[in-house]
Design brief:
By secondary structure, the chain is an all-alpha fold. It contains 6 helices and no strands.
Length: 192
């Protein structure tokens, strides 16, 4: 890849290029971006279920919510690697002081937003599994599972970025989002 890692826009890349971009060393897209992309894929699957479920009255509203969450997750994929790059620059700076703390906190806020958005996708996926067409229930299950994985991964990254502050409120919120996503996945998988 020719562009500096912070200039990459993941939504504009062909899907086949994503594994190579994620595999590059340095402060480019990595775990947080991958989690956000998984949440966006889950949101896309929720939209699919809603769009083909003609007998589901709330399907259009669920599809609209899933669209908004997917768009948010795509934006967060890029926000995450850029915030991480800024934090790494601060870590290398010889005069790092409070600016490092602010950079790390910002780098933790992005995966928190990913974890929360993914949990919201999971809730929609559980609803889609219960209310959507039987013919695409497996897609709702896949959406819920992707959302749970995305939320859990992003929540761990919050903890990593705030390693010296394990009791920080952001860590608690991230853990709550991961639990909500796991519960939503359980609800989705029980739908039949």
């Amino acid at each position: 890849m020719n562009a500096p890692a912070t200039e990459v826009t993941l939504a504009g890349l062909p899907i086949g290029a994503l594994p190579d971009v994620l595999a590059e060393a340095g402060a480019g897209p990595a775990g947080g971006s991958a989690a956000a992309l998984a949440a966006a894929m889950g949101a896309g699957l929720v939209r699919l279920v809603a769009r083909v479920s003609d007998d589901w009255d709330d399907a259009p509203g669920v599809a609209a919510q899933a669209t908004a969450l997917g768009d948010r997750a795509l934006a967060l994929a890029d926000d995450d690697h850029r915030a991480y790059a800024r934090a790494m620059e601060q870590l290398r700076a010889p005069d790092r002081d409070a600016s490092l703390g602010r950079a790390l906190r910002h780098a933790a806020e992005i995966p928190l937003r990913i974890a929360e958005a993914a949990a919201d996708v999971g809730v929609l996926a559980a609803l889609a599994a219960r209310e959507g067409s039987d013919t695409v229930r497996g897609d709702a299950w896949a959406a819920a599972t992707l959302a749970e994985a995305a939320s859990a991964a992003a929540a761990r990254l919050v903890h990593v970025n705030l390693a010296t502050l394990p009791d920080d409120e952001l860590c608690s919120r991230a853990d709550a989002a991961a639990r909500a996503a796991a519960a939503a996945r359980d609800v989705a998988l029980l739908a039949s």
